[in-house]
Amino acid sequence: MRVVDTNVIEACTWCLKDVERKQTEFLAKVEAIQAENACIKLRDITNLNCIADKHRGEIRKIEAELSDLDTEVHELFDEREDFQGWNIIDLFGQHPAEFRVTDLAYTIAEVRESGYGFEIEYIEGGQGHRHWIVRTKRHAWNNRLYRVEFYTERRTRNQEQIGHLKQDLFKQNDALQVLVNAMGTLEASGPKEDSPEIKMERMQIQTEQNKLFKVIALAGRIALHPKLFKAIAEAGVYESGPEEVTARVTEFYSELTVSLNNIHSPQIQPNIAPARSREEDNTYNVLLIGPPQAGKSALAAIIGQFLSPGSEIDFSHIGDGSFPCTREVRVVDHVSHFPEFELIYTNPQPSMPNEAHYYPNQEAPGLKVTISSIMGERYHRQYKQDLSRYDYLEVRQVPPSSQEKLRFRIFDTPGLEDTSSEDANNITKILQAVTKTDKFHLVLVTIPFGSYLSPGLQNSLIDIRNTFSDMRGIVAFVHTKVDPLNTHPEEKEFSLSLEKRQIRLDEIMGREIPHFVINSYLREDRPMCIFLRQDKVREILSLARSNTPVPVNRMPLAKTSRMRMMDEYAIQICSRHREEIEQRRSELQDRINAIQAESDGKKGEKIAFLEYLISNKQRHVLKVEAELSSLETDDLELIAEKTISETWLFSRVPVEVKVTDLEHTIDEIQEENTGFGIESVDGGQGHNHWTAKIKRLAWSNGSFHVKFHTKRRNKNQKKIGELKSDLGAKKEALQAFTDRMAAVKASGPKEEDPEITEERMKIQKELNKTLKAITRAKQSALYPSLFKAVAEAGVYEDDPEESAMRVAKIYTDYVPAEGEESV
User: Fold this and answer.
1) Alpha carbon distance, N-terminus to C-terminus of the chain
2) Do 176 and 127 meet the contact criterion of CB atoms below 8 Å apart?
3) Which of 252, 531, 726, 735 could form a disulfide with 343 if both were Cys (CB 3.0 to 4.6 A apart)?
4) What sections of the sequence does the record tag as coiled-coil (predicted)?
5) What is the 3-state secondary structure (H, E, C) of 115-150?
């Protein structure tokens, strides 16, 4: 079998080269697509910029035209002239003449008058109005010429054109803003997202590569799991010729890579929390994670030696530093009194520091060496000497002060950032183990001191930070493979390098993290080195005892990058399924509508006819209300006027001006009086008559003009009453139609067929499950029970398309526990 497996490894290595060639060609194709997309993006930005320049030109043109028109400059828009010659008839007096200009095209801003032979007696209108009324009196024995020019502001005269220009300017600015936003979005946008076909091809190449790595790993093992060995033996793959055997074994291993996790992992168990015992209260769970060959397994062995002094190290679980050893999560239990150790200096003639003190109860006299004496500044030189000495130094275990035993469960995990691109699978394995434990007390991230913090390692640490976000408070870094000579405080170069490394790691984790350095050389036998390491392990495990444990069963777990990629395909599958369900629901609704229309008979026609009547009646009501609104106002309207004129004579006789039996009550009177004196007035406001006795003033011509106004609501009182009566009748009819419509609509349809009801509920239930699956696929994190179900199903070990279908099925069929909701 080993000979055949060697051939299998060689064959798979050649296949790997072929896959790498495909990967190189694929990357070249992706780069070409990205370059083409970049050219398209640049062309689109250039085209948008050209269109934007055209809009800017139009905007400048409109703004220039607006600045010329929208000013207060006065422009002549109308002029009038009136001429009156001298007449012998006017020997004894000159009659006033009224000059009227009404309904001008624009509001008057300025009036310029000119002429000769007259004097102005009265002016009405002018600035701010659209009319001009002036009464002039010709000078005796003179001709009269009156000329007037009307000016308005340029913005008033061109108001309509200015409005159109402002509207055009708004449209141009709006279009320009849209273009600028589009250009900004294009410039800020990153590379175009890969198409589903590209993603699928990338996943297929990655899957093929992973399978080959797994086949090589299986073939390279010196021993196999009994079930796997039995399956190979029963298949009879070694009974053919060498070449055929190699091909059959390769194919067999390849098929087994999918189910390998199922061989080593138990089935999904129900998430039922048992009652806690005293033993569980004294149990501390410690998780070891880190890159390959970082000393995780060595640290687990060192912790085991501390908790179980005198125990032998099982080197079969520890790598040699050249190839990852831990492929699955390994849990080691230790039950201990939490030992404490001391370093004893047994030289009869001690030369140790003064801080040591004598212990008389020991088998032989000796001095207990303290950490402060070892690490003291003035003992640096002595420290270097004592590190390598074997004589007169002895590590002893201090008798336990309590009989209470503690249980430590150490979780040794596969390495992250290994060259076979197994990061996602290894994180999934870690999460599988984590979700089987109710809580954790400490997470130790091992980093070999002096190793390069590669981008891959940093990304893995970021994944750890995101995935175990709730565990940030119990994370600590352990820097392994540290020479004890460098750990003394006086080793400034080492201390500075360690400090820089700690700062960078804290930045990656987003908070300050405890850091420990440890000598991870397992065959260490120097007493002082062993003592220092035991003391450091006790310090680390004391942190686990003092930390507040983080419960796992309700801790949201972030998805791995591979899970997120596969969930994109799962969303597409669920979305297609959703469209199919929606189509079925639409077809069912069409059937229901047809049955309902048939059972209702003429109901639709009745509703349509009533809608027509209601719409027609509403138009009539609105029309009457609009007419009422225009009549029921306090605007004044002219109802009568009187004019009296007299020329100068030697006699002056009083004249009575009378208006009687007006149809409406007088609300306002406007008088224009020149040369008359009013002696008495009767009636007026509040009456429907008015009488005034006037008398021309001596030596004057006289002109008396009076206008009588009433409010519009008073003038149209009768019509308003008729309209209100008509409006009431129309509203009553409208309400009757509306009530009839409500009654027709409220009449329920025929009771639905139970089979149709059952089918509709079934479709809705299926749709709800699909929508929930889409929601779960879109989420960045899941609760442990769902995460565990997904991880243990091994759905990410297959081809991308098959994996996506299995993920979609799990998301759809998953039933959460009571009170559990996906994050």
Assistant:
1) 49
2) no
3) 531
4) 16-79, 571-598
5) EECEEEEEEEECCCCCCEEEEEEECCCCCEEEEEEE
Distance CA(230)–CA(226), nearest Å, equals 6
Q: Which is nearest to 232 in space by CA: 642, 174, 223?
A: 223
Q: Alpha carbon of 420 to those of 166, 209, 213: distances in Å? A: 66, 8, 7
- For helices 492-509 and 455-467, the axis angle rounded to 10 degrees is 50
Which residue type is seen at 427? I
- Per-residue pLDDT reduced to its tens digit, 44-96: 888 888 898 898 999 999 999 988 888 888 888 888 888 777 665 554 446 67
Domains in the chain: boundaries:
2-71+162-204, 74-157, 209-264, 278-339+400-553
The token duo for 635 is 């605007």
Sheet holding 636-646, edge to edge: 636-646, 702-711, 668-674
Measure the CA–CA gap between 211 and 422, rounded to whole angstroms: 11
Q: What is the pTM of this model?
A: 0.46
Tokens representing residue 133 in the block: 């009324």
In terms of DSSP bridges, do strands 283-289 and 406-412 run parallel, antiparallel, or are they unpaired? parallel
Check residue 248 and give left, alpha or beta (phi > 0: left; psi -120 to 50: alpha). Answer: alpha
CA distance 74 to 151: 6
Task: Give the Cα separation of 283 and 431 in Å (integer).
Answer: 20
**Which two tokens mark 562?**
């591979």
Closest C-alpha among 269, 821, 282, 289 to residue 554: 821
Q: Is 173 helix (H, G, I), strand (E, B) or coil?
A: helix
Single-letter code of the amino acid located at 331: V
**How many C-beta atoms surround the C-beta of residue 217 within 10 A?**
19
CA distance 625 to 371: 100
Element (H, E) at 79: strand 74-84
CATH number of 278-339+400-553: 3.40.50.300
Question: For 544-554, what is each residue's pLDDT tens digit?
Answer: 998 889 887 76
In this predicted model, what pLDDT tens digit does every residue of 121-148 receive, in sequence order?
A: 888 888 888 888 888 877 776 777 888 8
Specify the pairing of strand 367-369 against strand 357-358.
Answer: antiparallel
The answer to whether residues 175 and 58 touch, using CB atoms and an 8 Å cutoff, is no
